[in-house]
Amino acid sequence: MEVIKRTAEMQEISLRLKREGRIIGLVPTMGYLHDGHLSLIKKARRENDIVIMSNFVNPLQFGPKEDFATYPRDLDRDNKSAESVGVDYVFAPANEEMYPQGYDTYVEVKGPITEKMCGKSRPGHFKGVTTVVLKLFLITQPDRAYFGQKDAQQAIVIRKMVTDLNVPVKIITCPIVREEDGLALSSRNTYLSSEERLQALALPRALSAGRDMIMKGETDPQKVRLHIKQMLESSPGIRVDYVVVVDGDNLSDLSAIKGKVLLAAAVYVGKTRLIDNIDLEV
Ligand code: AMP
């Protein structure tokens, strides 16, 4: 495995691999790898000749009051994990490599899919995400790129960017990996105290309760949403940011529960913001 820090070098390697006819899979991450990240890498390993994992905490996607400075980082440990699951190249640029002085170009998907949910709570977040992801695509030249359903809205926004800009990359969304007790794996879980870690279980539990309502025949999205919201609001240590029950393809509002449905929520547990979702087909 090679660790590449320069954008020019990464792009040269990727373009050479493409010329040689190799199929490249990219797994973009912000590092501090857990089994969720590793599941994406393993799938990329099975489906491509070359696997590139990017490890970059992208300052553009953090708000001024968010956790960019304190986001957990451990490049050495990440490199060992990445190598153990067969990554060929880790691309780990410094901020100045990605955004040198005078950097001025941004990619933004406009409209409701970036304005609701996390887009509403984190203004500018998805603009930061689409900008870095398109840059990573141009630097690493992937045939396929792997994203987690954990960030369901992110995956939908990236699909939209790729469609709108005719980007020749196949976007592959992978299922959420959870702890045994149901909490979705996240690098931010390291912020939780042991008490908060227990309180955080309210999030997957409330979403599961919403899914159970639908399985039992509830077709009113508002009733399901309210039930999830009330469960979260009555859980100790939890502050609700948002709860939605929306179309799983494009996040639009539903008049009735049918087809692809996404139950998604964001909550604060203490100071830590956690997101989770369940998608289902009715
Ligand atoms: P991050 O490093 O948090 O930006 O995540 C990098 C990629 O891993 C994103 O596509 C995430 O959606 C994905 N990911 C994060 N957590 C999980 C998880 N628990 N299960 C599956 N994928 C995940």
From TrEMBL:
<dbReference type="GO" id="GO:0015940">
    <property type="term" value="P:pantothenate biosynthetic process"/>
</dbReference>
<dbReference type="GO" id="GO:0005524">
    <property type="term" value="F:ATP binding"/>
</dbReference>
<comment type="function">
    <text>Catalyzes the condensation of pantoate with beta-alanine in an ATP-dependent reaction via a pantoyl-adenylate intermediate.</text>
</comment>
<dbReference type="InterPro" id="IPR042176">
    <property type="entry name" value="Pantoate_ligase_C"/>
</dbReference>
<keyword id="KW-0963">Cytoplasm</keyword>
<dbReference type="InterPro" id="IPR003721">
    <property type="entry name" value="Pantoate_ligase"/>
</dbReference>
<feature type="binding site">
    <location>
        <begin position="30"/>
        <end position="37"/>
    </location>
    <ligand>
        <name>ATP</name>
    </ligand>
</feature>
<comment type="pathway">
    <text>Cofactor biosynthesis; (R)-pantothenate biosynthesis; (R)-pantothenate from (R)-pantoate and beta-alanine: step 1/1.</text>
</comment>
<feature type="binding site">
    <location>
        <begin position="148"/>
        <end position="151"/>
    </location>
    <ligand>
        <name>ATP</name>
    </ligand>
</feature>
<feature type="active site" description="Proton donor">
    <location>
        <position position="37"/>
    </location>
</feature>
<feature type="binding site">
    <location>
        <position position="154"/>
    </location>
    <ligand>
        <name>(R)-pantoate</name>
    </ligand>
</feature>
<comment type="similarity">
    <text>Belongs to the pantothenate synthetase family.</text>
</comment>
<keyword id="KW-0566">Pantothenate biosynthesis</keyword>
<dbReference type="GO" id="GO:0005829">
    <property type="term" value="C:cytosol"/>
</dbReference>
<keyword id="KW-0067">ATP-binding</keyword>
<keyword id="KW-0436">Ligase</keyword>
<dbReference type="GO" id="GO:0004592">
    <property type="term" value="F:pantoate-beta-alanine ligase activity"/>
</dbReference>
<feature type="binding site">
    <location>
        <position position="61"/>
    </location>
    <ligand>
        <name>beta-alanine</name>
    </ligand>
</feature>
<feature type="binding site">
    <location>
        <begin position="185"/>
        <end position="188"/>
    </location>
    <ligand>
        <name>ATP</name>
    </ligand>
</feature>
<dbReference type="InterPro" id="IPR014729">
    <property type="entry name" value="Rossmann-like_a/b/a_fold"/>
</dbReference>
<dbReference type="InterPro" id="IPR004821">
    <property type="entry name" value="Cyt_trans-like"/>
</dbReference>
<dbReference type="Pfam" id="PF02569">
    <property type="entry name" value="Pantoate_ligase"/>
</dbReference>
<feature type="binding site">
    <location>
        <position position="177"/>
    </location>
    <ligand>
        <name>ATP</name>
    </ligand>
</feature>
<feature type="binding site">
    <location>
        <position position="61"/>
    </location>
    <ligand>
        <name>(R)-pantoate</name>
    </ligand>
</feature>
<keyword id="KW-0547">Nucleotide-binding</keyword>
<protein>
    <recommendedName>
        <fullName>Pantothenate synthetase</fullName>
        <ecNumber>6.3.2.1</ecNumber>
    </recommendedName>
</protein>
<comment type="subunit">
    <text>Homodimer.</text>
</comment>
